[in-house]
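Troubleshooting: if your tokenizer reports a length mismatch, compare your output against this known-good record of 273 residues.
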Amino acid sequence: MQGVHVTPTTVTTMSGEREVDLRMDGHLNGPPDVVQGGIAAGMLLAAARSVDRFGAPVTSIDARLKAPTPTDTGVQAFVSRVAGAIYEVETRIDGRELVAGTVELAGHDPIPRIADMMHLATVPLPEPQPQYAAPQCWVCGPDNPHGLHLHPAWTPDGAIVQGFIVDEELAGPDGALDPLVVAALLDCPTVWCAQRHLDAINMRGAVLAGFHVRYFAEVPVGEPIRIVATMDEADGRKIRARSAVLDEDGTVYAMASAFQYAVPDMPGVPPAA
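Known-good structure output:
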């Protein structure tokens, strides 16, 4: 993925962890100077892949985001294999933990049946509407010149349904959409599907605090896909939502469950007028 720099080192800690150096270019931000949440979670995958010897497709990422990951800054990842193809990974700067979790590299899961979201594969595509709570976000921001400009598109009931054709620039080494990009795509919609709730509690946006991604099939390049999301529940500032990448034929390529925490303003973004 362009802008992602991964450098395995020869360093092994006393506990047997392998150290990997990471850096994300500035255009991969969500809020200014902060790595977009899905990419921050996906950094665990990038680190695990760099030390994995088998090369199987990613099964899942399970991440806990504890502090913002800065862009254009060296980050250390510490990777340990705990069982089979399961790796525990932490990213840190100067000993301060940023993201921690597990990555499984054991091949794709069987494709699930998600009846409550499958109808979103065939509904008419809503009109995208630029949002300015996070205008520089690499995925959904309107003002990032290097971004994807995947603006929120709301159905009448508040769900998100975004149409997208994957550009070959976003492909990984195997020619399909890079799984790190998939993680990024699945993050932002889990904020915007909660827009009605955010409005009701006078919050402008949300930051990712927990993220679980499962992969079922390679996302093809050059074919129309959809990114969909729906809010499951909200308790004040705590929001839980799910998102998926699928197509109009009902193929589910990946899914995510997100824990978002509502904020009055996104970090680094001037308050709304």
